[in-house]
Amino acid sequence: MIKSRNKVELAPNSASMSDLVFLLLIFFMLTSTLISPNAIKLLLPQSTSGQTLAKQNITVSIDANYNYFVENIPTKETELEPFLENLLKNVNDGTVKLHSDKTVPVQYIVNVIDAVNKVNDKYNKKNKVILATEAAKK
Question: Does residue 94 form part of some domain?
Fold first, then answer.
């Protein structure tokens, strides 16, 4: 009887399967970061005189639960001024774009404006605060 030197294996090669799993993992990791860049859910107030801002230096958000977020980082009201001071001290004519839920009382918006004005007074700067709105529905 003649025996073959090459043995036939019945188990599938799993090297290509692991490559496929890693490629799928990378694909889902990349696409999941592109889906929701702004994770703070807000219902912005509506305006008919909307203008587009060319550049803003800092984004501050206030959600419906009256929580502050500076550049999407949760910030307490007492830490708002030092945080903004750290970000604005080297900016002379910057803009703080304020995203506020339309249910938020005006006092919370004024707190952000006051914090920016205190930084302006301390460093003799001319930073301004603008309120982000969405286009009015017709």
Answer: yes
